[in-house]
């Protein structure tokens, strides 16, 4: 069985803030507002991809945030959310997978607690501090770069990674990477070949763990990648280029 581990935001779906043209399909509602979309081309490609491979959305989104999404391509039996710490099987949390995730991050708890105390008092924080499923920390900060630098100075970076994506700040256990989740899921499902597609720093470990790796144009240079990735040309929307590439792989039976 070939498995496609695919990031969601800015890889497969785009928020209302992005101009992806008028040929788009709403896939996420929040408080009655349409907030995320697929391009029509990506939607059509995904339907065909689903006939050939097992699509596993692999996202840093929380369970609640993931459940808001409907890709409109039928049932998706598996999803990895909370950066791979939670496996959803037909939409329900797999208790055994989650317990293993808690066991894996045990050595990271002191650093998470230190980060929690630091961020609770930081007046640059512009959003509530969330301890997502007791797995990792998330907030938003007015000045994310210095916040990340200061966290790296006080935390044991052997046990946690500190990221920021624009104003969003994350403190994540090293064993709670998407790459670790891909390795675990490979054994769980007895997967054959693994394809992975992603666009951000969170996706690097997932791409590294895959057999076929797809990322946007310029990704390798931006993150100083030293392993093989198939970068898309960058002449179209990434989700369109990426799903077209996967369809080509399906036609060659991968």
Spatial strand arrangement across the major sheet: 5-1-13-14-15
Mean of all residue-level pLDDT scores:
96
Percent helix range? 25-40%
Low-pLDDT ranges:
none
The number of strands is 15
* Beta-strand percentage range: 25-35%
Q: List the total number of helices.
A: 9
Order of helices and strands: EEEEHEHEEEHHEEHEEHEHEHEH
Radius of gyration: 18 Å
User: Distance N terminus to C terminus?
Assistant: 11 Å
Using the alpha-carbon principal axes, give the shape. Answer: globular
Helices and strands: which structural class? alpha/beta
Question: What kind of sheet is the major sheet?
Answer: 5 strands, parallel
How would you describe this protein?
The chain has helices at 40-49, 63-67, 95-104, 109-121, 144-154, 178-189, 204-209, 219-223, 238-251; strands at 3-6, 14-15, 24-30, 33-39, 54-57, 78-81, 86-89, 92-93, 130-132, 136-140, 160-165, 168-173, 194-197, 212-215, 230-231. With 254 residues, the protein is α/β, with parallel strands linked by helices. A five-stranded parallel sheet has the order 5-1-13-14-15. β14 (212-215), α8 and β15 form a beta-alpha-beta unit.
Key attributes of the depicted protein:
4-stranded antiparallel beta sheet
What is the compact description of this entry?
This protein has 9 helices and 15 strands. It has 254 residues and is of the alpha/beta class. Helix 1 packs parallel to helix 9.
Helix-strand blueprint:
Layout: E1 3-6, E2 14-15, E3 24-30, E4 33-39, H1 40-49, E5 54-57, H2 63-67, E6 78-81, E7 86-89, E8 92-93, H3 95-104, H4 109-121, E9 130-132, E10 136-140, H5 144-154, E11 160-165, E12 168-173, H6 178-189, E13 194-197, H7 204-209, E14 212-215, H8 219-223, E15 230-231, H9 238-251
Parallel strand pairs: 1-5, 1-13, 13-14, 14-15
Antiparallel strand pairs: 2-4, 3-4, 6-7, 7-8, 9-10, 10-12, 11-12
């Amino acid at each position: 069985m070939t498995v496609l581990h695919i990031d969601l935001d800015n890889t497969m779906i785009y928020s209302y803030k992005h101009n992806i043209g008028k040929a788009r399909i709403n896939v996420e509602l929040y408080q009655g507002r349409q907030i995320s979309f697929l391009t029509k081309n990506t939607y059509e490609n995904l339907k065909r991809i689903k006939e050939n491979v097992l699509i596993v959305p692999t996202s840093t989104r929380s369970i609640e945030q993931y459940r808001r999404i409907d890709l409109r391509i039928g049932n998706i039996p598996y999803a990895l959310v909370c950066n791979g710490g939670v496996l959803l099987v037909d939409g329900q949390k797999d208790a055994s997978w989650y317990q293993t995730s808690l066991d894996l991050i045990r050595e990271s708890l002191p650093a998470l607690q230190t980060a929690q105390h630091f961020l609770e008092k930081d007046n640059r924080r512009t959003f509530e501090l969330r301890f997502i499923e007791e797995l990792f920390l998330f907030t938003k900060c007015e000045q994310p770069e210095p916040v990340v630098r200061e966290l790296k100075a006080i935390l044991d970076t052997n046990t946690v990674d500190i990221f920021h994506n624009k104003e969003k700040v994350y403190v994540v256990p090293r064993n709670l990477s998407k790459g670790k989740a891909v390795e675990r899921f490979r054994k769980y499902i007895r997967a054959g070949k693994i394809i992975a597609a992603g666009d951000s720093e969170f996706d690097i470990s997932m791409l590294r763990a895959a057999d076929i790796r797809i990322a946007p144009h310029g990704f390798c240079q931006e993150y100083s990648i030293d392993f093989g990735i198939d970068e898309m040309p960058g002449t179209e929307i990434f989700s369109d280029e990426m799903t077209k590439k996967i369809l080509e792989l399906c036609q060659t039976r991968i």
